[in-house]
Amino acid sequence: MSFNSVLTLRQKLRQFKAAIYSSLLLLSAAAQTLAVPLAPEESTKQLPLAEQRYHYDLAKQAMQRGDWATLDTHLGVLGDYPLVAYLEYGRLKHDIDKLELTPIVAFLDTHRGSFLETRLREQLLYTLAINKRWEDFLTFYDEAKSTRELDCYWLYARLFEHDSSAMSDIAELWQQGRSHPKACDPLFNRWRRAGGLTQDVAWNRFDNAMRAGKRRLARYVMRYMDAENRKYAELYYQVHGYPYTMRNTERFSEHSLKMQQIIAYGIQRYARHNSRDALKQWEKYEAQQLFPELLATQTKHRIARRLISNGYSAAAEALISNSPSLQQDPVVEAFIRDALRARNWEKVYHWIAQLSKDAQESDRWRYWRARAMEQLSLENDSFGAPKQIYHALAQARSFHGFLAADRVNTRYSLEQVPVELSPSTLLRVEQLPGLRRAKELWLRDNAGEAQAEWVFTIRDLSSEDLVAAGELARRWGWYNKGIHAMIAGNLWDHLSIRFPLAYEEEVQEVSAQTKVDPEFIFAVARQESAFAEQARSSAGAMGLMQLMPGTAQATAAKNGIKHQTQDLYDPQHNINLGGHYLNQLLSMYNGNRFLAAAAYNAGPHRVARWLRSAEPDLDYDIWIETIPFKETRGYVQNVLSFSVIYGYRLGQPRHLVNESEAKSFL
């Protein structure tokens, strides 16, 4: 189903309401005035879906007015309309303060495992807590369906019911390095009055807050400290603001856990400014004090990462050489990428061998093992000869699998598993109550509740039923949820669902206008939002192709496209602007897609800086692997891989990187 067909369906819903309103309103008014009961055969007859929607809307309006008689009139003709449960839920929610548990329990049992069951249970628990019905609260509390506020009420209920183990659990909760909801205040007040807040607990929360970057919270916690602990806290604060203070080792000579925590924090802060001197100062402290192993490992790990990123790999290598616990995959991978930048293939090969077994067997590091072996003229190792590794890896449908296929000039592994489902399976899954509610809510533009219903419904489905749900979502045009179903079940081979030709008409249209290949537009949209029309990032990027409002405005102005910010939630408009912005980036980088993709994600200014710092004649695979930002590195690799897959799906096979891109990016 294309965007236009989905839009038409939604328009028809609105048009139908207007068209039949006058005729059905008379019937509805008569039924309300005369209160004439429906005949048995009429009450069992199902109304057409459009009329059910009309009566549902009137029932909702009646519920909002508290007009229960009118609600019952419309409810009586709704039959099996998918959202009837929302009316039942709404009535129970309205009366929840009465705490009449029998109908609530019946609803919870009928809708067990659903989104509405979880929502009503939450509201019941809040009401029980407000009314101090602690015994009932403990009966209905479900840890798997809880919230932070309900966790606090649960602990309060345990205190009230004289559960002695609650005190230590409250201490564990309070000392987390983050703020707690206001609902937790009565719990913590009672806990403090009972003597639960010790100086050690206060210090632990202060330390956790500082390490979590919550300095205002840390300052708040200081009010619960005695004079001695406040002295340590003030010193902690000082090394945060002035990390160079760590050079004065005499000031931190005291041997205590609190002082060691301050030293470790200060050295980690100092490493951000001067990693080499931070290492020097740390070695002095470590010679004087016996730090807890975990604290020492965390500190040296942070110093090592800073040293590598600042170009002091030899110092970092010396630091971890005598500490096997420091040879964790993130640090080792940083060494490998540093060696790749320098094209030091001996180091690349050495450090790959230091990775964990699982990491060594990943597509990424198998590829780079083979590359290093080629450069070092190594004929064989435990993974085989380079060409053997490439041929085996080329069977993987992944970025490094495609790279490996190009190294040995073999075809990409793009075969997909066709979606073969019986009509009965599709019908059975389509009739699942939660899926019916999810679809209807989505068609009514209620994105939040539609999303919740979908997630709750598919989480316990079998693999076959997940494929059916994904295929149904694709057919409806709810592409994002089809992709979600495949991810939820680790079902990677159904390419028609994982990589749908969503909004194909719109993509082809902007491709024709800009000459940006359609598979590249598809790949960027798939990576950016997985085709979620209403997606909005924490940074403010909007819509299918996650355009920032400023970028969208500038692109629209440059290309003469009428634009308002809210239009970014319109798929056609978003794809149009996104395609034109990609065209601008491709022009900037002479048609190079991986540079354009990197700029789309991280900004052209960062790409310019990365290009300036790269060694001359660096191979494109090394440049991509050593992009400094992990997010951008993964982004570029995904977009290139997705372009290959979309080329296959469009019947237009493409290379992962073409010859022009490989030769011209530097």
Automatic annotation (TrEMBL):
Residues of the Transglycosylase SLT domain? 508-615
Q: Does the keyword ATP-binding apply?
A: no
GO CC annotation, single: periplasmic space
Q: Which domain of life is it from?
A: Bacteria
Q: Tell me a Gene Ontology molecular-function term this record carries.
A: hydrolase activity, hydrolyzing O-glycosyl compounds
Keyword entries, A-Z: Signal
**Start and end residues of each Lytic transglycosylase superhelical linker domain:** 429-495
The record, for Pfam families, names: SLT (PF01464), SLT_L (PF14718)
Q: Which residues form the signal peptide?
A: 1-35
What family classification does the UniProt entry report for this protein? Belongs to the transglycosylase Slt family.
**Protein name as catalogued:** Lytic transglycosylase
Tell me the classification of the organism that encodes this protein.
Bacteria, Pseudomonadati, Pseudomonadota, Gammaproteobacteria, Cellvibrionales
